[in-house]
Amino acid sequence: MKYQIECSVCSKSSPNLLTFRCPSCGQPLDVQLHYDFEAGKIRKRDYTVWRYAEFFPYVKKAEIITLGEGWTPLVKLSDNVYFKLESLNPTGSFKDRGSTILISALRKLVKKAGGYLSEDSSGNAGASIAAYAARAGLRAKIYVPENVSGPKFNQIQFYGAEVVKVSGSRSKVAEEAQKSEKGKFYVGHILHPLFRDGIRSLAYEIAEQLDWHVPEHIYLPVSAGTLLLGVINGFRHLAKSNVIETMPKIVACQTRQVSPLYHRFKNLHYAMPEKITSIADALVSVNPPLLDLMVKNLREADGDAVMVEEDEIFNAFIMLARKGFFVEPSSAVAYAAYNKQLKNKETSKDDSALIILTGTGLKTMLKPS
Ligand SMILES: Cc1ncc(COP(=O)(O)O)c(C=O)c1O
Ligand SMILES: [Zn+2]
Q1: φ and ψ at 221, to 5 degrees?
Q2: Atom 14 in ligand 1: which residue has the minimum CA distance?
Q3: Ligand nearest to the Cα of 25, by number
């Protein structure tokens, strides 16, 4: 068997691609790969995530649903600093890597059952799932908080998804999206193991674009943890397959307001804010369901965590824009964290670093002063 979907806690394997929780203990599932990465198996003329199709064996090639995601530019900022422009994916964020894999894997099953997709997110993931559902000819219902507004919400609607507004907390929105209804297939990006697994492609791409010499540090923003876990899994697969010599140090970057991983990782107490007012408005998971999994994986990968302040995020956002990189403030969190580590001498300009710029600035709610 080339892969197995199994529980991240009790290791029980899961029988089908639709499951998003362990049937035995309810914990998150993970895709386990039982084969090596081989550069010779890359589809060299395909400049999308699907150049790595061989390494996503649960998707049949004839069933791929793509909008041309992936193979995003990797730009050298200075001698030792690189940006990975995930903001240039089809819907404006890295989430398209998860959506293309997940919806390609499930389309036939959902279509055959005459069903529709359900997701909870008013942000980039909601927009991405809505776009890939449209491309796949599937109906999508996106559950959003009642007070939602802004460019991402507009984007979801333009893709033709049905929007269901839910009053109450963010977890209430997720609960409604998961409630079983006739024909409903829940594909929530946070819990679904295939969405997270699709993010593996980002690690493959970074390594290939740097000729299999990975940078010493990789900085990325963390909220629910799909980006973090996907990237760690991808690099781990490359290291186990002896395609890269060492794992890069993965640095999880969070805002002071939303920093449960940072606090847990550093063995500190985290007090949730009453209200989130951060300009990094995509990073809102104060109580992420994947927290245990994130801590375990970040520790095993010998990674690190950094927390940044609002002024540091804003400064990084402006610095990036003044260099020509227009990203959303949530993406600037990773650049802010890199600058903070430089300032605190926790890293040096001699260490190579790559910062993942996760989402486009064109969706930002900020106004220039
Ligand atoms: C632009 C952007 N960056 C980073 C993240 C964090 O990703 P994750 O929730 O997988 O930790 C998100 C999540 O919504 C996002 O939209
Ligand atoms: Zn289990």
Answers
A1: -75, 145
A2: 282
A3: 2
> What sign results for the dihedral spanned by CA atoms 92, 61, 31, 20?
positive
Per-residue pLDDT tens digits for 263-308: 999 999 999 999 999 999 999 999 999 999 999 999 999 999 999 9
Query: How far is the CA of 149 from the CAs of 155, 283, 364, in angstroms?
Result: 10, 16, 12
Residue with the smallest CA separation from ligand 1 atom 12 is: 282
**Cα 30 to middle of ligand 2, angstroms:** 10
Best residue for ligand 1 mutational test, from 93, 231, 253, 255 (most atoms within 8 Å of Cβ): 93
Four-residue CA torsion sign, 3, 193, 359, 347: negative
Ligand with an atom nearest the CA of residue 260: 1
- Residue 291 in contact with residue 191, Cβ under 8 Å? no
Report how far residue 270's alpha carbon sits from residue 93's, in angstroms, rounded to the nearest whole number.
28
* CB proximity list for 235: less than 8 A, separation 6 or greater: 203, 207, 214, 244, 247, 248, 250, 301
Q: Which helix (H) or strand (E) holds 56?
A: none
Q: What is the reported pTM?
A: 0.97
* Beta sheet of 304-308, edge-to-edge order: 74-78, 81-85, 353-357, 217-221, 249-255, 304-308
Choose which residue among 279, 283, 293, 294 to substitute to test ligand 1 binding: the one with the highest number of ligand atoms within 8 A of its C-beta: 283
How many angstroms separate the alpha carbon of residue 161 from the centre of ligand 1? 21
Tell me which residue of 358, 243, 332 sits closest to 280, measured CA to CA. Answer: 332
Cα 210 off chain centre by: 21
